[in-house]
Design goal:
This protein has 188 residues and is an alpha+beta fold. It is 24% helix and 45% strand. The protein has an 8-stranded antiparallel β-sheet.
């Protein structure tokens, strides 16, 4: 069997995508995951700040109420080693109720990668799991490649229009909010 490693330099499609990311574009895609009735959503973006700075925000669940645009309440219930237990309330539009989740978050920083992965402990969801993955963008210590993935299904019926809003507006709004909090520009 023969394997090839694709890099942006060797593949025009990857180079084009990397160029668009470098200019501040935010990519949101979804894919079907076996045994789940909802699609996993993936968001990729570049933030012109060091990964450590971005990590300080995305790993601090106690402050999600001030750093994440759709979270109305948040607290860190415990933190032992690299495992945190967090409670947050997602503020949905009227007439839908807000959704509460308690999640277990495993945080790992190693080998130039910052990774937080959560799973649902309890709350208003059938399932709620996902991750933040941060790394250097184009080997630049002042630029972060952000990959956010989430697979979530609330216990309530959510209109398709609201799901679409979440994918197209709310998720990119998280990146725009992170950029604003860090006081950084969009383009590289």
């Amino acid at each position: 069997m023969l394997f090839f490693a694709l890099t942006a330099a060797g593949c025009p499609a990857l180079a084009a995508e990397e160029g668009r990311l470098a200019l501040g574009e935010i990519f949101v895609t979804s894919r079907t995951i076996e045994h789940f009735d909802q699609k996993q959503v993936r968001m990729e973006a570049v933030i012109n700040a060091a990964p450590e700075q971005v990590w300080n925000i995305v790993s601090d669940c106690a402050n999600f109420k001030t750093t994440m645009p759709t979270i109305s309440s948040s607290e860190e219930l415990s933190h032992v080693g690299n495992v945190a237990v967090c409670r947050s309330v997602l503020d949905l539009v009227w007439p839908l109720p807000n959704l509460e989740a308690t999640t277990r978050v495993v945080q790992t920083v190693a080998n130039g990668q910052w990774h937080a992965e959560w799973t649902l402990v309890s709350g208003d969801y059938k399932y709620n799991q996902g991750s933040w993955n941060l790394s250097l963008f184009q080997a630049d210590p002042k630029r972060t490649m952000v990959v956010y993935e989430v697979l979530v299904a609330p216990d309530i019926a959510v209109p398709a229009a609201l799901e679409l809003f979440g994918k197209t507006r709310a998720l990119p709004g998280m990146i725009r909010g992170l950029r604003a909090q860090l006081g950084v520009s969009v383009a590289g």
